[in-house]
Structure formats: structure tokens, C-alpha cells
Design brief:
This protein is mainly alpha-helical. It has 14 helices and no strands.
């Protein structure tokens, strides 16, 4: 006859935390998915149905329409909101910001993590301090600088601003990852005849792919969602607006129905969600595991 296991303190704690874990997961999913679901349903509902049943989470699926998305994506000349061109502008700005920021941050982070030079630790702290400055503090100097360079009102000028904002934190993030790569792996490459640049290209950079991807997504999200500098430098050029400016225009006027505003919000959110799911494996994969074995 089998006896029941005694209720030890460790067993009770594991049972309690096991239940709490699922409670937290369910609450987090509810808090995240329900607002997005409501926003998505609003974007497909006719304005008449919304006015009749504003608090309904289960709309009449037979009455759902794509008219709101047609209005949001259609050009301004055709009576729409022109979000398709705004998406293109944001994609150009965000992609260019990621490429240039990583091009600068990767060698910078490697130098800080591997090369010995005077003030190495202080430089790393300064990079983080620059990122911690409020954006409004640098807004006026950047405005004056871009005006003198005749880049105000252009996407190129906005890219330069985002690079200046994101390179310090990108270097800080990548430096932490480069420091986890065993130096013995790089030393073995140098013994085999690789130069320092060869070690970076053939060994360190492939091992740092998860961190590079995570940093790139971080920079992309900043450039995609940023509003203050886009408003400051592009407000006079409607054809150069990004999606954050377009959404602010929708929310700032009473003539635009809530359903159209929600459609614009979905259009802005979906690319980021898709990008995250496409890169989820690289974000969670530990390529340095076992790199120092053998």
C-alpha cells in the first residue's frame, strides 16, 4: 500500500508558484489581447453599428466591412488618409536607421568589449548616459543643426536624428553580448591566421546574431513609433510624413470616425507584430552555448 507524499515546505511552495505562474500568464494574455481584439473589431465595424452598440465585444460578423481600411490606405487625392505612402516613408526611415546604426554599433561595441584603451569603462557608461538624456533636451540643437544642413523636412535628416538617438544604446546592448563570447574562441581563430577583422566577421559576429537581431528590432521599433522628432522636422512636408504623424492627425480631428482611427492603429501595429514573430527564434536562440567546448 503506497503512502502519500508528505507536504513539505518545498512542495507547497512549488505548488503555489506553479498555480500563480499560470494565473499571471492568463492575466497578462487577457490584458494584452483583449484591447487589441477590441481595436481590431472596431476597425472592421461600420460606424452605425458602433454608435448603436459601443460596448459590444461581439459585433455582428455579417456587418463587418473593409471600408475603413480602404479609407485609411487610399491616397489623399482620392479622399483617403494616405497611410500607404506613410507606411513606405516609415519603412524607409526605420530600415535605414537599423542598417546604419548596426553598421556603426557593431565595431564600436566590439572595440569597447575587447580592445584595451584608456577610459574604456568610462566610455561605456557615457554611451548609456547619452541615451538617458530626454529627447526634448536635444530637440532644439538638432533642429538648428538640420536647418543649417538643409535637411529639415527630409527623411534623410530624420534618419540622422534616429541614428544619433539609437547608436549609444545599441553599442551598450551589443557590448554586453560580445563580452559573453569566450575569448578563447577568438584566440583560436587568430592562431589559425585570422586578423582581428577576420575574427569579427567569421567568429564573433555569427555568434552574436541573436543580440544583433534584438538590437536591430529595438532600433526599428524606436524609428517606427517615434513621434516628437518626426513632428518637429516633417510637419511642413505632408508627403514626407511617417505613420506616427498620420495617426496623430487622425486622433486630433473630430471629423474622423473612431473606426477609421482604429484601422490606422492596426495598420501601424501589425508590421511590428509580424516582425517579432518572424525573428522570435533568433531572439531566443543561444548560439554561444557550448562554443568554448572541445
Amino acid at each position: 500500500m503506497s503512502t502519500a507524499r508528505p507536504w513539505t515546505r518545498d512542495r507547497v511552495e512549488r505548488g503555489i508558484f506553479g498555480v500563480l505562474r499560470w494565473v499571471v500568464i492568463v492575466l497578462a494574455l487577457f490584458a494584452t489581447l483583449v484591447p487589441f481584439y477590441y481595436m481590431l473589431m472596431l476597425s472592421f465595424r461600420p460606424i452605425e453599428d458602433l454608435l448603436l452598440r459601443p460596448d459590444s465585444l461581439l459585433p455582428d460578423f455579417g456587418a463587418l466591412t473593409f471600408a475603413t481600411y480602404e479609407e485609411v490606405l487610399s491616397p489623399v487625392t482620392e479622399g483617403g488618409q494616405g497611410f500607404l505612402s506613410l507606411l513606405g516613408n516609415s519603412a524607409i526611415v526605420a530600415t535605414a536607421s537599423v542598417l546604419v546604426a548596426l553598421l556603426v554599433a557593431i565595431p564600436g561595441a566590439y572595440a569597447v568589449s575587447r580592445l584595451e584603451f584608456f577610459g574604456r569603462r568610462q566610455v561605456s557608461v557615457l554611451f548609456l548616459m547619452v541615451y538617458l538624456f530626454p529627447a526634448i533636451v536635444t530637440a532644439i540643437p538638432l533642429f538648428v543643426l538640420l536647418t543649417k544642413l538643409q535637411l529639415r523636412g527630409s527623411l534623410a535628416g530624420l534618419v540622422l536624428v534616429y541614428i544619433a538617438q539609437t547608436v549609444p544604446v545599441a553599442i551598450y546592448m551589443l557590448r554586453n553580448y560580445f563580452e559573453t563570447i569566450p575569448e578563447s574562441v577568438e584566440e583560436a581563430g587568430m592562431v589559425d591566421g585570422l586578423t582581428r577583422l577576420g575574427v569579427i566577421r567569421r567568429i564573433s559576429l555569427p555568434l552574436a546574431v541573436p543580440s544583433v537581431v534584438a538590437t536591430g528590432i529595438f532600433v526599428f521599433m524606436i524609428a517606427w513609433n517615434e513621434f516628437l522628432f518626426a513632428l518637429l522636422f516633417l510637419v511642413e512636408r505632408r508627403d514626407q510624413w511617417t505613420v506616427s504623424l498620420g495617426l496623430a492627425q487622425l486622433s486630433g480631428t473630430v471629423e474622423i470616425p473612431t473606426t477609421v482611427l482604429m484601422a490606422g492603429s492596426v495598420v501601424i501595429t501589425v508590421p511590428i507584430v509580424v516582425l517579432f514573430f518572424l525573428t522570435e527564434r533568433l531572439l531566443s536562440e543561444g548560439l554561444t552555448s557550448g562554443a568554448d567546448k572541445g
